[in-house]
Amino acid sequence: MPVVFVAPHDHVYSKILSNMQEVRARGGRIIAITTEGNGDLSGLVDHQLRVPATLPLLSPIITAIPLQLLAYHVAVLRGCDVDRPRNLAKSVTVE
Fold this sequence. Notes:
Strand order of the largest sheet: 1-2-3
Mean pLDDT: 87
Low-confidence stretches: none
Oligomer: single chain
Strand content: 15-25%
Order of helices and strands: EHEEHH
Structural class: alpha/beta
Helix content: 25-40%
Distance between the termini: 42 Å
């Protein structure tokens, strides 16, 4: 089972590493979104997406972009219509 981790090098990084090791011990495949220059993950993860290091307040914005692209490409590979998602009319009201 693939597991996606958002792992910027910040104050909770050691806890994220611990979670990654637990997933790896149980046979999970790890996809990590991490900051550039972070070489700690090279033997632990299967795939690594690197984002530029930035201010802590901007980090969530920068890490959201690869997550959106990943979701888009997974939806396309699954054959989902990304321009007209199923059940969208049920959650969007028109006035």
